[in-house]
Amino acid sequence: MAKVTGIGGVFLRARNPARLAEWYRRTLGVPMSDGGAVTFHWDGLETTTLALFAQDTDYLGEPGQRAMLNFRVDDLVLLLERLRTNGVEVLPQTEESEFGRFGWCVDPEGNRIELWEPAPGM
């Protein structure tokens, strides 16, 4: 059954991603890269990423959306199909990369949600 299997990441808009990454490093000890991201590795293959995006990014959806959840899923195509069938707004584009396949939907309050089917071995 196509379903969410975990949280792949949390993405935040930032007025100054580099400065905010430095704050997370210095204040909380989060090992953020200079680019403003860190991936935590849990037991097995599970990971969760915290990433900072520029304030003017389109990636997170509407400008008022401060954060976007990224959910790991086990079957992206089937889940997107089921969401469409159930009347959920599903964005038409999908992406494939070395990290896996990505698709997006929008919750009832207008928040963009990223759905990620990890590549084998991730």
TrEMBL record:
Domain of life: Bacteria
Occurrences of domain VOC (ranges): 6-118
InterPro entries named in the record: Anthracycline_SecMetBiosynth, Glyas_Bleomycin-R_OHBP_Dase, Glyoxalase_6, VOC_core
A matching Pfam family: Glyoxalase_6
N-terminal signal peptide: none
Name of this protein: VOC family protein
Source organism of this protein record: Saccharothrix lopnurensis
